[in-house]
């Protein structure tokens, strides 16, 4: 259970376009603001620039000149390295990325850093060869170019983010926030990630496999949508819920409910339920001393063996190992998540 250091690449000498400030601000917001009541110490954030410091008040192109205290050499030794984006000219026009950036990314990876890209930052990781043979993603508007330029990369244009162990990539904009919260969940546990998401007023967890582009129909004036039935399901995860149960509560046919939920979330009802149950199990393992069998029962995942099966398959560790990784330092939170 450790926060560690996070180094964020800032393309200083090219300038940060105003529309790319969002991706740059995401890791600054998630990792840069101390949250001592959630975890102490919090992350050690450093912004690492690719060029010389800009003059005061200088602007570059259509963007902003950014001065940082750290250079590319400071990427090496960081626990996590994040490339929020690369300039449009490097994506659309094939303008070369700074060779010193590519070299620094390779050295950071060789030193054991967890490498992360948001949106078009995947082009930098791909140029460094860090995505060769791996599944990766970027904003859906740029995935075709990524696949064409780097044929060794297995580009998935449909997902929010891809966790390939020591290399993680995300789609653009809000998907970058989803990935950063996923990193917090990995490092500090589900409770910390959920509380941080609540403070940021964003969904606590959108699985990486959820679709990037979702056809969300505009509800009619008297349509309350799916929120009430999904809230009810979260409050009753210990029950043996079925699609038919949820559809009946939503006053829909199972086929209509299935279609509506998939359109709204990009996932199926059964996968949505599994994600919610795994999230509840994480919270219980982190915040209580309940036996594994009871955790399986309260989360709706059934027996200890069934809980262990799902944890090994979807989390990568057993429930016992997960609990040992996130020891309870304070009294557990409410079971409401």
TrEMBL record:
PROSITE patterns: HTH_ARAC_FAMILY_1 (PS00041), HTH_ARAC_FAMILY_2 (PS01124). Transmembrane segments: none annotated. It holds the Pfam family DJ-1_PfpI. Keywords: DNA-binding, Transcription, Transcription regulation. InterPro entries: Class_I_gatase-like (IPR029062), DJ-1/PfpI (IPR002818), Homeodomain-like_sf (IPR009057), HTH_AraC (IPR018060), HTH_AraC-typ_CS (IPR018062), INH-QAR (IPR052158). Residues 227-325 form the HTH araC/xylS-type domain. The keyword DNA-binding applies. The keyword Methyltransferase does not apply. It comes from the Bacteria. This is Helix-turn-helix domain-containing protein.
